[in-house]
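Researcher: Structure prediction, please.
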Amino acid sequence: MLSEDDKDFLLRAGEEPEILGTDKYIDIQLGNGFSRLTLQMGPNCNRSCFHCYGKFGPDRIGLPSVSVVGKALEEAVEIGLEEVSVTDGEPFREENRRVVEKITGYSSRLPTFFITNGSFAGTLESSLDWFYFLKDSGFGLENEGNSIEVSCGTMYPTDSRDFWRISEGLRQVYGDIDFGNHLSYRLIAFDGDNSKQVFENVVGAVGYVFGMEDISASEKKDCLEILMTLKNRVTPMKIRRVYCRPVGRASQMTSLQKKFPLRKVESSDLGFFPDFFGSLWIGHDGRVSFGSSGRCIYDGKIYGNVQDDSLEKIKQRISSDPVYIGFKLGGVRFIHFLVENIHPEFVGEGRTRCDVCASIFSDSGLVGEVRKKLDSCGVVESYKGFIEQFDIGEKKYF
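Model: Predicted structure follows.
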């Protein structure tokens, strides 16, 4: 696993992209294994949020099973993974209660991060019920790394009182803890909506429940981050507003289509987003890939099923794959560059970087050709040749 110094070095690459061409960066990335297990809670979901990148909702079929999740968690401990992320659907619903109980039972060994749409807090009683259930089943918020993020916004059918009920439920159940380390809110916004009012509702609810001593704001790219210093707490609570991108159902929004026009893409157009912190993704049916969410999973990235094979073997299969190593070093920009070299006539097309990634990894044959090229030419040698051809200091966020 990464040392703190190596983590800091990789994180600096976001602001100092010249790092990406150094031998130190390559050596750290080649030695950097998987640290996170990502568990899919859908694709069936209790809401059909318009912006959902996975188009999850009540009409989709598929929920995780206790047996699949339990096996994945047990083997994650055995192979030394450090944390768990729970996403791709709503965890805090009756259909997933037994699965959540299994996950929280491991949360003292594998710090766990839940993402919820907040629908469980329709009443204070239901909010308290879920938080007591989480606490009684082992999800201790006194443990570093255990946390909940509430994803909200005008495209969610979320009652503003839900924000109060979530914060109040946590306060009543967990008492005197440093909530800034364990609860955050992420507001999904788009141009022209009333997200400012929703944002103010969240800030007001948090301040009312916990008490607010200070507040500060910072903005970077399309993200506004509020840090609220709470009374008698050490760590400020984060409330972020991020702008929706045209993925999933949101790709049909006229306003986003205008903001992100469909375009032909060359490698030099793509931002440089290598994979710094590896995540093993487990689908509801046990399929295993690499990536932080279901948005990143395509047929060309499936390496096995945890129901049929050990997580250790599948992890080794991924770790030794030249395509994965190349993606880890150079992100989709490097993979796109290789595709262009194999097929000069290839034209990537999309509104975002995710569209370009999907157009490549959804084609298993194309991924196989990239794998063959990297096998013959060498991953590191190919990456060095790639990195020399672009001005990586020029920041692009396509």
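Model: The two ends are 30 Å apart (CA to CA).
Researcher: Thanks, that helps.
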